[in-house]
Structures are given as structure tokens and as C-alpha cells.
User: Fold this.
Amino acid sequence: MNNKPIFKYQIISNFDWVIFGLTIIISIVGIFTIYSTGGGSGGEPSRIYIKQIYWILYGLMAMLLILFIDYHSLEKLAYILYFMIIVVLIMVAVSGKTVSGARRWLSFAQFAFQPSELAKIVIIITLARYFDDKKIRGLYKIRDLIAPAIIILIPALLIAKQPDLGTAMVIFFIFISMSFLIGINSRSLFILAGSAIVSLPFLWHFMKDYQKDRILTLINPQADPLGRGYHIIQSKIAIGSGGYMGKGFMSGTQSQLNFLPEKHTDFIFSVFAEEMGFIGALLLIMLYIILIIKGIDVVYHARDRSGSLMAGGVVSMLAFHMIFNIGMTTGMFPVVGIPLPLMSYGGSYLVTTFISIGLLLNIKMRRFVDMG
Assistant:
């Protein structure tokens, strides 16, 4: 490292205002949608939009902090951060706060935080460090992916044990996406795909009953319309009843009459689609697509391999959340509690999303700067 100031004019001039602007716009849309879920009547959902605003402010502060830290410094601390997050996840398993049958939170004074969300960022940084250190000639083979697979398997199992199947799925998707980014030879890819297909019957055998129910509900939600299929059915009714132009702000019957469960978290897209219709939902999806495209641009024009890998991990995480959440609300995927980026209510996930986007901006800002 040299003695030049780390946060200098060349870095600031590369700040991506489009990514930042899209982040703010989607967050504001989320605030109004969360407010709408409570109808402004003073009930709990109508109060939590205030909490969402505070979490956005905390997220912006966390983003600002990340911008000041060179991502290469984060890469150097990767294994320390990984060890720390494993310890924290073990603490959650031993003495974490239990809510609705899930032990996912650690409590500090008046705050409860979900470490599994932060684990996703740590895993992205750790995998980037590993792949950057272990350069090989040619494409990666299965044996080359054993060590990074173990890296993600430990936190994924701890998180799945909470249980939090959705976040565990995100971690595996991040690993697969970053593996594709470094390059896997076709034979190894074929073996991995074949192994995944062959393992499905064995996976079904070890799944818990409620997890099996979610799969069966996805196939036929009408089999139990007032029980397991209720969420998907009400969500599809909400989205479909919005039509092309929507019913208008705070006028969605499924939301206002409380037919739609988890409306301010997992099913917030259903609320938005009912009120704003197909046109509004399409515009929102376009905002996400532009954000992802801008992120992909950072991936392919990053200064170095580590920056490209970190950006790829962030983009894959955001894309998976967006695609799976919308697919979940439209009945394409099982309901596993994956929130919609920047829209769904939730402090831990929202702050983590801002940190991840801050990391993306960090990599873009240092694209043309000589850090040597």
C-alpha cells in the first residue's frame, strides 16, 4: 500500500449514481407499499413503515462505511470474518432468540439481529478470497471445488438447522454462480447436474414434513386451500385482481381485508401488483433488471479478479432474491421465506442488502484507480 489517500477524487468520480438511485427509488416504493399494507389505521403494519425508514437510514450509514473501506482490505480479512460468522451462527444455535418456532436471532439490548443475513456477504468475500488465491490453469474440475464447497456447507447447515431453508438456498446459489464465473469444464458440469438429479429422491427422504408439504402445495395448492395452499392462492388472487392498471394505492382488497398473509414481508410484491396492476409490477421488475444489469457491468469491468468475483456474488444474491420471491408469490416456486430486495420489511435483510450494494459501488469506484 502507498501513502496516497484511499478515498480520493478519482474514486469519488467513479461513483455509480444509477445503482444508488435505483436503490433509493425501490426502497421508497417499499416504504409506501408497507404503509399501504396497514391502511394507515394505526395497526402494527401501519407503524412498521416508520421502522422501515429507520432501517433504510441504518443501511445507508452501513453503505457509506463500506464505501470508505477498500474491498481489497475486506478480502484480506476474509478468513477472520468467516471464522467470526461461524462462531456467531453457533451462538444462534445455542442461545438464539426463538420466534414462531425458528431460532434465527441474537438479541442486543432492544435490537434483534439475524446473523444468517450477514453470513451471505461474508461468504461472498471468503469465496472471492479463496478463488483469487487458488488460481489454476484452465477450467475448474470437481476436485477443485471441494474446498470451497466445504466453506459454504458449514454455514449453510447451521442456517438450515435454524430452520431457514431460504437463506441456505441463497448461499448455495451464490456458490454455484461464483463457480460458473471462475469457469467449470463441461464434463464436471455434467457430473454435477447429474448428481443433483439423482440425489433428489434421497433429499426427499431426509426432508421434514413441512418442507415436503411446501413442495406438494406448489404442485397442487387447491388440495388444502384453507391450510397449506392458502398463502399461494391468496397471493395469486391479489396479483390477478390488480388487472392492467391496478386498484390504486391502499385500495387492494386482499391486503386491506387481511386475506393476504405475510403481506409486508414475503408477499409484498402481491400487495404492490394488486394496487399498481400489471403495468406497475412490470415497471418495478424493470427497475430490478436495470439494477442487475448495472451490477453485471461491474462484474465484467472490475479492476481485478477479486473485485469481479465479489461483484458476481452480490449480483447473483440480489437476482436470486428477486426472481425467487416473485416466483414464490406467483406460485412458480415453493414458499420458503425469501424476501424481495429493498421492498420487504425486515431490518437485518435490509441493512445487509444496502451493505451488498455498497460493496458493488465500492468495486465500481475503484475500477480505474491505481491502488498500488
In short: The longest helix spans residues 268-300. The first strand starts at residue 97 and ends at 99. The chain has 15 helices and three strands. Residues 9-365 form one domain.
